[in-house]
Amino acid sequence: MTTIRVLLADDQKMVRQGFTVLLDAEPDITVVGQAVDGLEAVERTAELAPDVVLMDVRMPRLGGIEATRRITESRTGGAADPKVLVLTTFDLDEYVFEALRAGASGFLLKDASAAELADAVRVVARGEALLAPNLTKLLIEKFAGMPDGPGGGRLKERVADLTERETEVLALVARGLSNLEIAGELVVAEQTVKTHVSRVLVKLGLRDRTQAAVFAYETGLVRPGRL
């Protein structure tokens, strides 16, 4: 069994300790380190090479969004690159979306159950797009779909570089479907889907599936209510 290595970044000691106890109780997950702020999170990620970083949004010295950006910008594109899972509360919607745009793989509310926490870590470690439940997709719909948002003609021109099938795959990624689910939807092999996703990322200059999903909403390829 492959063990998922996790780094916890939160300025609240009780949160770090609580999550450590919950995650270490899982047979396939281990907490390899903790960080008290974003700067230490970046440093410890480089030092420990965790599979997943649980990142709080509001921390001293360096916030979670900028820390996420620095970590994701250091990725090489390999399967071993660290994934970032943002920890937040309901009143931080804007920050959550910015974290997703910065390269986070999804987010989790701090009051999540032990099972939800462990499942979220596993989903992110597998390199899946956005996290269930659907709250993540609702956030993207809310902020990426705004009329005066960061989308526009320049981004839509990049979509034109995709083939019809690649555009179709991108839209399904944005809906939160896994490679296996997309394969079932399009009646093709899962490896074929993986190839299409890789080509989409290269053509659009995106780092991962999460940024591809955000891009799809920003350009209007996927719109609120059309999931």
From TrEMBL:
Species source reads: Streptomyces qinglanensis
User: Where 4-aspartylphosphate occurs along the chain?
Assistant: D56
Q: What are the protein's UniProt keywords?
A: DNA-binding, Phosphoprotein, Transcription, Transcription regulation
Q: Which CDD domains match?
A: LuxR_C_like, REC_NarL-like
Which Gene Ontology molecular function entries are recorded, alphabetically? DNA binding
* Nuclease in keyword set: no
Q: Which residues form the Response regulatory domain?
A: 5-125
Query: SMART domains per the record?
Result: HTH_LUXR, REC
Protein name per its UniProtKB record: DNA-binding response regulator, NarL/FixJ family, contains REC and HTH domains
Q: Which GO terms describe its biological process?
A: phosphorelay signal transduction system; regulation of DNA-templated transcription
PANTHER family recorded: TRANSCRIPTIONAL REGULATORY PROTEIN NARL-RELATED, TWO-COMPONENT RESPONSE REGULATOR
Q: Which InterPro entries match?
A: CheY-like_superfamily, NreC/VraR/RcsB-like_REC, Sig_transdc_resp-reg_C-effctor, Sig_transdc_resp-reg_receiver, Tscrpt_reg_LuxR_C, WalR-like
HTH luxR-type domain: residues covered: 155-220
Task: Specify the signal sequence span.
Answer: none
Q: Does the keyword Transcription regulation apply?
A: yes
